[in-house]
Automatic annotation (TrEMBL):
Signal peptide: none annotated. This is Pre-mRNA-splicing factor 38. Keywords: mRNA processing, mRNA splicing, Nucleus, Spliceosome. It is found in: Nucleus. GO terms for cellular component: spliceosomal complex. Residues 205-220, 237-299 have a biased composition (Basic and acidic residues). Belongs to the PRP38 family. It comes from Polypedilum vanderplanki (Sleeping chironomid midge). Residues 221-236 have a biased composition (Basic residues). The keyword Ligase does not apply. Residues 190-200 have a biased composition (Acidic residues). PANTHER family: PRE-MRNA-SPLICING FACTOR 38A-RELATED.
Amino acid sequence: MANRTLKDAKNVHGTNPQYLIEKIIRSRIYDSQYWKESCFALTAELMVDKAMELRYIGGVFGGNIKPTPFICLILKFLQIQPEKDIVIEFIKNEEFKYVRALGAFYLRLTASAVDCYKYLEPLYNDYRKLRRQNRMGHYEIIHMDEFIDELLREERVCDVILPRIQKRHVLEENGDLEPKVSLLDDDLDEEMPSEDEEEQLQQLKKTDNSKHQSSKDSERRRSRSLSRERHKKSKDYRRDDSPLRKKYRDERRERDKKRSPDRERRRSRSRSTERTRHNRDDRSYYKRDRSYERDRRRY
């Protein structure tokens, strides 16, 4: 009897509200110690005290599928089915962030698509940190706006399959929702320059570009003139009538004149001795060749 839904409760999405949580997880919650000790005979007024005691969010963890207090209170919400005004007060609570997260999760499970976007999108401006327990039992840090974004976009959050809702642009086309207005639009409008400022910026850019182009042209002209001068110098040096070339030629002639006749004679003698040696070597070679042919004829 303690695990049954109240008689006055209405069906949500065409089914019993408790059936929105899978049977395996639901049976684990019924067998957990937190459900038996803390969730027994809870009412909507007493749920506030239990929600204020939360220190993290999460679904189930561990190999034995142990439920967290957060998912246990969600199931208790589905069982007693509080009024919509109470859930909205949970969402508007700015002092206790886990109370707000609990109300947002319950509203996402039970409310229509229009109410989900209407009451959950303002929570994008809440950047407070939340502690979440993952499936391995470890804790991780997320932010409230990330949690709300997961509720509106993901299919499974905290190990619970969320009911499908229509996309926002479809509701806007049908006229059920007004176009989304972000708080950042005002800041962007302030930062955007006016028309006069844009014209001034464009003129400054044009002048900068012209100056840059003129500096480039001057550098190119300078480099061309330097290359021409270098080319001319190289040509002058290679010509026969250059002063350096003449000087080198005159010095060489003077050195040739200063050579002694004895030196010339020695050079001629050395050349003649080399020729005679070469001729002797040739004769000895021919003699060897003839002796080899004679020996060959004998045998």
